[in-house]
Design brief:
- This protein has about 550 residues and is of the alpha+beta class.
- It has four domains: about 100 residues, no CATH class; about 150 residues, no CATH class; about 180 residues, no CATH class; about 60 residues.
- About 60% of the residues lie in helices and about 5% in strands.
- α13 runs antiparallel to α14.
């Protein structure tokens, strides 16, 4: 480790101990050397003894800075690992970071563009429009077309800082995993690896730009979602140039109400957009917190969302999509047996799971939810509770489903903030039922046949030759198998003959020795022994060659 790494490690340890995070570990899980090292750092005392555990962790992450703040935000969505109290505390983490110097921003932008800013842009604003833990945003006007744009540039040396913190987190996770044992429910190593994937994706702005272009193409003609235009030729690993939008933040309820926005329709469209991205496009925005979602100022009676920040996108397999849709439908039909079957069929839990016990566990968790009105039932919490229940039956963690669960909780929270009476089920059920109908049955079969038809038509002329070749291969295979079988049988015959001769030789030799010991005429015993030796030699050399048929 470098000197800077040691400094960072000491800073993390100091913050951890100042907030008493070490005291949250059960004594029985802390070995003697851990307690000894803690006593050696006697000057680092717990300064927040009266604070709850979740609050201490939140404050420590705020103290440690952006990478840990983003980690806490991600961890707050893992309610399969944390209690509700801890998750709520971490969800309050705010990513507010002072901007870095404009001179550094200008230098970084010009390095990526390989050209002076003034040669491509007018009105570059040295005052950042926004500043976050990973990047900073400035506004400008494109010289080529006079369009207003924003330039999003990574912070200086952010990659090195993130990777150093990730390395330290991984080492701490390995230590925690050792202390907590193989069956601990927190699974720190797995959590850190999930976070590594997320944060490293956000460090590549070129990837974010490509994600934005794909999402924009999926909703080009949509009246519900608009994705700003990306100037792809001006997008690089550390820089994005994109269309600037003039819109209202979705969290600005006063602004939305002031312009007369149809909040009920806006809330319903948020749910529809989520399910469309997941089930129609299999490409969903997985970071839909209010800071990334805006509402167009045009046509407030027919509101349109505007999405930003595409560093974290999610995808599902076709099987995952079908099982999820059927899970939701089975839940609202109170078909708990079907839910248990779906978890086993999908491979999320072991095929050896006791389906009856699993069904009963699901029923215990889900049935009380029906005491609520439908407009109070949360899809995200249904999914969360099902995952929690499945964990007791050794469910394997599905990172793509955790990402989906987080996004669903965001969408629901957003929808009910806009319109508290939002009935998610009424909005989503027709979509899910329609999608399921398209995936199974005659309509789905016809659709798949149409999709495969060009491929089959292309291969049809080759079909007779392929059939002939396969029949020929089959016949040759049968012939070769028959030859192998004949050779095997001959080898077995040789082996039996050899074994018979060797056994006979042993009998003759033993008989000759016994005759000699009993004083029988010498020539008889000698003849018997000699016959045995000759028989043994013949039997030995008649053995089949080892490994050959």
């Amino acid at each position: 480790m470098s000197i800077s790494s040691f400094r960072r490690a000491y800073q993390v340890i100091k913050t951890t101990l100042h907030f008493g995070l070490d005291e949250l570990l059960p004594t029985k899980l802390t070995p003697w050397y851990f307690r000894f090292l803690r006593r050696c750092l006697f000057w680092l005392t717990n300064q927040h003894k009266n604070s709850a555990g979740g609050e201490r962790l939140k404050l420590a992450m705020q103290e440690l800075g952006p990478v840990y703040i983003k980690f806490g935000q991600m961890l707050s969505t893992r309610r399969d690992l944390l209690t509700d109290e801890w998750a709520e505390e971490l969800s309050m983490l705010q990513d507010r970071v002072p901007p870095f110097a404009t001179s550094l921003a200008r230098t970084a932008i010009e390095i990526e563009l390989n050209a002076p800013i003034d040669s491509l842009f007018d009105d570059f604003d040295d005052t950042p429009l926004a500043s976050a833990s990973i990047s900073q945003v400035h506004t400008a006007t494109l010289k080529s077309n006079g369009k207003a744009v924003v330039l999003k540039v990574l912070r200086p040396d952010v990659e090195a800082k993130v990777h150093a913190d990730l390395q330290l987190m991984s080492q701490v996770a390995e230590l925690l995993d050792t202390l907590l044992g193989a069956n601990n429910r927190l699974r720190p190593i797995e959590v850190i690896e999930d976070y590594r994937t997320t944060i490293e994706g956000e460090l590549n702005l070129k990837l974010e730009a490509l994600n934005g272009i794909k999402l924009r193409n999926n909703f080009l003609d949509s009246s519900t979602l608009y994705i700003p235009y990306m100037y792809e030729e001006l997008c690089f690993t550390r820089l994005i140039v994109m269309e600037r939008i003039d819109a209202i933040s979705v969290s600005d309820m006063h602004g939305l109400q002031a312009q007369g926005t149809n909040l009920k329709l806006l809330a319903e469209r948020g749910v529809e957009l989520f399910f469309t991205q997941v089930f129609r496009d299999n490409f969903f925005h997985a970071d839909m917190h209010p800071g990334n979602i805006f509402v167009s100022r045009e046509h407030p009676d027919n509101p349109k969302y505007i999405g930003l920040d595409f560093g974290i996108m999610g995808t599902l397999t076709n099987e995952d999509k079908r099982y999820l849709a059927e899970n939701f439908l089975a839940f609202f039909n109170r078909d708990y047996r079907r839910i248990a079957q779906l978890y086993i069929e999908s491979g999320w839990v072991s095929p050896d799971t006791d389906i009856t016990a699993f069904e009963q566990a699901v029923k215990v968790v889900c049935e009380p939810m029906f005491n609520k009105a439908l407009n109070e039932i949360s899809f995200g919490h249904v999914l969360l509770e099902l995952f929690r229940t499945a964990r007791r039956f050794d469910m394997v963690v599905q990172p793509q489903l955790v990402l989906l669960e987080k996004t669903l909780l965001y969408v629901e929270g957003l929808g009910r903030q806009l319109y508290p009476q939002l009935d998610l089920w009424q909005t989503a059920k027709p979509f899910l039922e329609g999608w399921i109908a398209e995936q199974v049955g005659p309509k789905a079969l016809l659709k798949k046949t149409k999709e495969k038809l060009p491929y089959w038509a292309d291969k049809l002329p080759e079909l007779p030759e392929l059939i002939y070749d396969n029949l020929k291969v089959g016949r040759n295979f049968v012939n070769s198998q028959n030859k192998l079988l004949d050779r095997y049988l001959k080898q077995q015959q040789k082996a039996h003959k050899s074994h018979f001769l060797l056994i006979t030789a042993a009998v003759l030799i033993l008989s000759g020795v016994m005759l000699f010991n009993q004083g029988v005429t010498a020539w008889i015993s000698h003849t018997t022994i000699t016959a045995g030796i000759v028989t043994w030699i013949v039997g030995w050399f008649s053995r089949p060659k080892s490994g050959k048929f």
